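Subject: design request, 341 residues
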């Protein structure tokens, strides 16, 4: 039986320095991807010229995105151009490590596997994220942080994920409502509820830079917007996929409980950051006042997302009523280690 063909999609905007490293890491894979597709926003830093040159040599397919319209829309543009049996998605500031693609491919021996992901490391090689899963309340758990994922819904990290192309296209690709954050979780849940499994390969490793993007240049404005998106996208996701199980009162109560149990004991009001990793110098403390503003912003986002998700047709792909709700254990491909929080 021949190995499945592969397409790798990279979405980029004004990140020529990091994109160059990403593309080199893809070209160095063995086997090499059957095609590399780059979706370029209206870049102005030389990215477009570089990509047009590479496309003219046949090294990649270039897709022009006329305006920045969110990560889901960009990924859908790449998906529309893909011809491989498997479509891999990697961020433009991520570097695929040797053996990445081979390990992704090896995860698709079972036809019921609809997606395969792998570990994500910081740019210094230290672990960032491992096996991830979500609960019906939209809470994330990461086994690499000694959090149990037993009985939960396995999901992948957006900078290191892959799917079978045909079922992903059949379910409509990525929901454009998720302009940023939770788009990958939504796609994974869509696959799971269509009877596929989400796999995980320890050898499919990427190093992620988490570099500054156009949306992060105003740190405080970005932080407040990010908190809003956390609330909006997460509540939309929960109602879309689990609305028949999780009423709003239960969902909101769980979010508040999680805040009190996890963030406050860690001193989150004094130590909230905009992200990054200490090894790369990307962690910057956020003033307490703006942390409180961010919390209020998240509450407004939570209400907005729940309201918006009520407009999703129950018969539409991804609507709660269309899901064949089976036990999460039937979806797992993970070798569980019995870890507990």
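Subject: RE: design request

Done. Sequence follows.
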């Amino acid at each position: 039986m021949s190995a499945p063909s592969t397409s790798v999609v990279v979405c980029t905007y004004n990140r020529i320095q990091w994109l160059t490293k990403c593309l080199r890491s893809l070209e160095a894979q063995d086997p090499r991807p059957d095609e590399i597709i780059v979706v370029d926003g209206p870049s102005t830093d030389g990215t477009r010229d570089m990509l047009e040159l590479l496309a003219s040599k046949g090294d990649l397919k270039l897709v022009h995105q006329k305006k920045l319209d969110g990560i889901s829309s960009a990924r859908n543009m790449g998906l529309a151009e893909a011809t491989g049996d498997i479509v891999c998605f990697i961020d433009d500031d991520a570097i695929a490590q040797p053996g990445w693609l081979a390990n992704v491919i090896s995860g698709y021996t079972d036809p019921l596997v609809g997606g395969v992901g792998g570990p994500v490391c910081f740019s210094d090689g230290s672990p960032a994220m491992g096996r991830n899963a979500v609960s019906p309340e939209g809470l994330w758990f990461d086994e690499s942080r000694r959090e149990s994922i037993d009985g939960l819904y396995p999901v992948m990290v957006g900078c290191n994920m892959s799917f079978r192309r045909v079922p992903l296209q059949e379910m409509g690709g990525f929901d454009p409502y998720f302009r940023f954050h939770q788009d990958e979780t939504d796609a994974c849940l869509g696959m799971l509820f269509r009877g596929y499994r989400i796999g995980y390969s320890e050898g499919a490793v990427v190093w992620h830079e988490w570099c500054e993007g156009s949306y992060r240049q105003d740190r405080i404005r970005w932080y407040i917007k990010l908190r809003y998106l956390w609330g909006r996208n997460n509540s939309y996701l929960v109602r879309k996929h689990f609305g028949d199980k999780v009423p709003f009162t239960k969902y909101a109560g769980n979010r508040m409980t999680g805040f009190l149990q996890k963030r406050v004991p860690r001193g989150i009001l004094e130590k909230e950051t905009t992200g990054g990793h200490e090894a790369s110098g990307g962690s910057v403390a956020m003033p307490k006042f703006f942390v409180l503003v961010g919390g209020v912003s998240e509450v407004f986002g939570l209400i907005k997302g729940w309201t918006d998700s009520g407009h999703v047709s129950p018969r539409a792909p991804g609507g709660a009523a269309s899901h064949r709700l089976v036990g999460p254990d039937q979806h797992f491909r993970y070798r569980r280690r019995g870890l507990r929080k």
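Residues 265-282, 314-341 have pLDDT under 50 and may be disordered.
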